[in-house]
């Protein structure tokens, strides 16, 4: 069931992405030769107007084939003949649709919620040194930690783990005013009868009203967007490497583990759906990175081409950009293959 759910999820996300390109192209009267769901040989084909629609046999991927997308053509309604700003919107529309889909999925996940944990200090146990005179107080709302915004309560523990130091720069909101605590000492302690060190304070809860659900959905989505930046920073700094990356196979395993850890079938479904929302927003952001073969690379190429043509007053042949994206696609597929085999190896090793 997890595998079926994952295949269905990926198929829907890719379909939604290509649908974004398709709708934007149609809105700007750009000729679409084919709109396909899935890849491989066609199972069903039908034509409507100038566009051929198809459902293909391999349940992965899909595409929106626009006239003149990677090569020049005399067709006045080709992609290359459209105004630059129209091409920009068409290229961005796929990721925009994934972004919207991701936020909608998160909204569905949080819809049944009765309460949310808030980043507000509710109680402090005797012996807690984090909440103290001249420092943090009960009722303080944590706003930032080490320069990063606290959107939801789980951000607090995440950023503490990312920075193992016992001192942190904190910003809290107290009585409507923001207070900064630089190099604030935060130590864990053993409490009586326990074997695990803790900070010794707890966060509060609030009723999940309709407005709070919308707010929590929005903040959770922003958190996912930020996670892409943090991941890239960790890769550049060397904190993360190939072993920390995962692909479709690894994601299926994560979904399976998440479903198995749930208390009931509804929680299992919501856990997998949350991962789906995370993936949708992640794909939207990653796809806009300026990397050849991705939409972000095409956007970068479009803006660069427009700048060069504006300066030189000469039309550039789009086939050269097509060559760059072709090489980028080969490298991207090779990288995906490496991640795939790594995920399979990890599963068998377990």
Structural features, described:
By secondary structure, this protein is an alpha+beta fold. Among the domains are: 71-110 and 279-349, no CATH class; 115-207, PDZ domain (Pdz3 Domain). Helices cover 50% and strands 21% of the residues. The protein contains 8 helices and 8 strands, in the order αββαβββαβββααααα. The protein has helices spanning 2-27, 84-110, 154-162, 210-237, 248-260, 265-286, 295-312, 318-349; strands at 32-48, 51-66, 115-124, 141-145, 148-149, 167-174, 177-185, 201-207. Strands 5-4-6-7 form a 4-stranded antiparallel beta sheet, with helices on one face. A two-stranded antiparallel ribbon has the order 1-2. The radius of gyration is 24 Å and the shape is elongated. It starts with a helix and ends with a helix.
- State the total count of DSSP E strands: 8
Give me the strand/helix succession.
Answer: HEEHEEEHEEEHHHHH
> What kind of sheet is the major sheet?
4 strands, antiparallel
Instruction: Calculate the mean pLDDT score and round it.
Output: 87
Give the structural class: alpha+beta
The rough form would be described as: elongated
Strand portion: 15-25%
Distance between the termini: 20 Å
> Radius of gyration, rounded?
24 Å
* Total number of helices: 8
| Strand line-up across the major sheet | 5-4-6-7
Q: What fraction, in percent, of the residue positions are helical?
A: 40-55%
What are the low-pLDDT stretches, counting only 5+ consecutive residues below 50? none
């Amino acid at each position: 069931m997890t595998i079926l759910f994952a295949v269905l999820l990926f198929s829907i996300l890719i379909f939604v992405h290509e649908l974004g390109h398709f709708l934007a192209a149609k809105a700007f009267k750009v000729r679409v030769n084919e709109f396909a769901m899935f890849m491989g040989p066609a199972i069903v084909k039908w034509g409507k107007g100038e566009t051929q629609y198809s459902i293909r046999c391999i349940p992965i991927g899909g595409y929106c084939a626009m006239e003149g997308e990677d090569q020049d053509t005399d067709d006045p309604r080709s992609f290359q003949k459209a105004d630059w700003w129209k091409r920009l919107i068409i290229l961005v529309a796929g990721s925009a649709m994934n972004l919207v889909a991701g936020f909608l999925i998160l909204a569905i996940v949080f819809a049944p919620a009765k309460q949310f944990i808030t980043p507000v200090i509710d109680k402090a146990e005797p012996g807690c040194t984090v909440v103290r005179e001249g420092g943090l107080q009960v009722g303080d709302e944590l706003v930032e930690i080490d320069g990063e915004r606290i959107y939801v309560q789980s951000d607090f523990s995440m950023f503490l783990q990312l920075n193992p130091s016992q001192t942190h720069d904190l910003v809290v909101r107290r009585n409507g005013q923001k207070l900064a605590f630089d190099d604030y000492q935060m130590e864990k302690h053993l409490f009586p009868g326990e074997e695990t060190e803790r900070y010794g304070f707890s966060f509060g809860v609030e009723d999940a009203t309709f407005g709070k659900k919308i707010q929590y959905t929005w903040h959770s989505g922003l958190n996912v967007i930020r996670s892409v930046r943090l991941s890239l920073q960790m890769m550049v700094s060397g904190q993360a490497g190939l072993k920390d990356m995962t692909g479709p196979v690894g994601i299926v395993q994560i979904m399976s583990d998440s479903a198995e850890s749930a208390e009931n079938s509804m929680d299992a479904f919501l856990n997998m759906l949350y991962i789906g929302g995370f993936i949708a927003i992640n794909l939207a952001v990653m796809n806009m990175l300026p990397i050849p073969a991705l939409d972000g690379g095409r956007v970068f190429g479009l803006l660069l081409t427009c700048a060069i043509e504006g300066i030189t007053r000469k039309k550039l042949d789009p086939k050269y950009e097509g060559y760059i994206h072709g090489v980028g696609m080969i490298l991207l597929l090779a990288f995906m293959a490496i991640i795939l085999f790594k995920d399979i190896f990890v599963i068998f090793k377990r």
